[in-house]
Amino acid sequence: MKIISLNVGIKIDNSKQVGEFIQSQNPDIVAFQEIIRNLDESVYDIYRSKEHIEKIIGKELPYSFFGPLFVARDFTKDGKIHRDFGGYIEQGNEVISKFPINEATNEFYYKAYSYDKDRTNFATEDNSRALQVVDLDIAGQKLIIINVHGTYSKDKQDSERSLAQSKYVIKVALRKKLPTIIVGDFNLFPETNSIKIINRKFRNLVVENKIKTTRPKFDDGLDKGENVVDYIFVNDQIKVNKFELIDTNISDHLPIILDFDIIKK
Questions:
Q1: Helix crossing, 49-57 with 15-25: angle to 10°?
Q2: Contact present, 21 and 85 (Cβ < 8 Å)
Q3: What CATH number is given for 2-262 in this structure?
Q4: N or C, where is the chain less crowded by C-beta within 10 Å?
Q5: Do residues 237 and 182 make contact, with C-beta atoms less than 8 angstroms apart?
């Protein structure tokens, strides 16, 4: 089986490119971060990524679960409109699959789902964050996918928020002794204690494969230069066949791809 993890990028008009890339890779499961669901028909085209991507890959991947983090109509910064969506949108995470979903939850660990508008102090206050936990039925075998878009920090270093986040990820991941894959944009560098907390219980395939960057040559004006912030972790019930990053500019993050099998016990 094949899973792809990708932060789509809210500020990029890339839905067609992302959808076509996913289609070309023929995955079984996709985990998106920073994907947008439009709630109004007036929402500008650039902010309708969930709708546009699903039109391209929906036939091959018919099962999906979207976990919204917040709802917004626009963002303001220092009293001025920073980003206008044209209508109400939700930003969140999504798992799309060839396999049926047994159950799924969107579990908030930092703040709660709310209306988000003022981004003046975003770097220190952040928006709400949740773990997307999806239980898939793989021909009678359960597979847990945990999809993470981590708390923001400009320097990608440890904080009280990130340490609490990692502890919660592990708590959730160890609830059931099932094949488990943790994916996402953690907004953290590999050497942080927050990432090391997860390393103690799960294989960190990005570190294991000595990946130098999960960023393309894309200047988003925020996070510049090469760095590692995206990860895939697996437990001992997942057999790793192939792990790779694809060098593409479809987003401000590189797609991470894992070919794997479930180890039957």
A1: 30
A2: no
A3: 3.60.10.10
A4: C
A5: no
Longest dimension (CA), the chain: 57
d(CA 146, CA 75): 28
Q: Which two tokens stand for residue 140?
A: 């009678």
Asked if pLDDT for residue 221 goes beyond 60, the answer is: no
Q: Which helix (H) or strand (E) holds 173?
A: helix 160-173
What is the pLDDT confidence band of residue 167, given thresholds at 50, 70 and 90? very high
CA distance 72 to 115: 6
- Alpha-carbon gap, residue 13 to 19, rounded angstroms: 12
At residue 217, the pLDDT reads 80
User: Strands, DSSP E only, in 78-196?
Assistant: 80-97, 101-110, 129-138, 141-149, 180-185
- What CA–CA distance (Å, rounded) separates 147 from 31? 6
The first and second tokens of residue 262, run together, are 């479930």
Q: What is the pLDDT averaged over residues 187-191? A: 98
Burial of 134 from C-beta contacts in 10 A (0-12 / 13-18 / 19+): buried
What is the arrangement of strands in the sheet containing 141-149, beginning at the earlier edge strand? 101-110, 129-138, 141-149, 180-185, 230-234, 203-204
In the block, residue with structure tokens 């023929």: 26
pLDDT at 122 over 90: yes
- Sign for the pseudo-dihedral over CA of 206, 209, 213, 214: negative
CA atoms within 13 Å, Cβ hemisphere of 175: 12
Q: Please choose, from the candidates 13, 25, 31, 22, the residue with its C-alpha nearest in 3D space to the C-alpha of residue 143.
A: 31
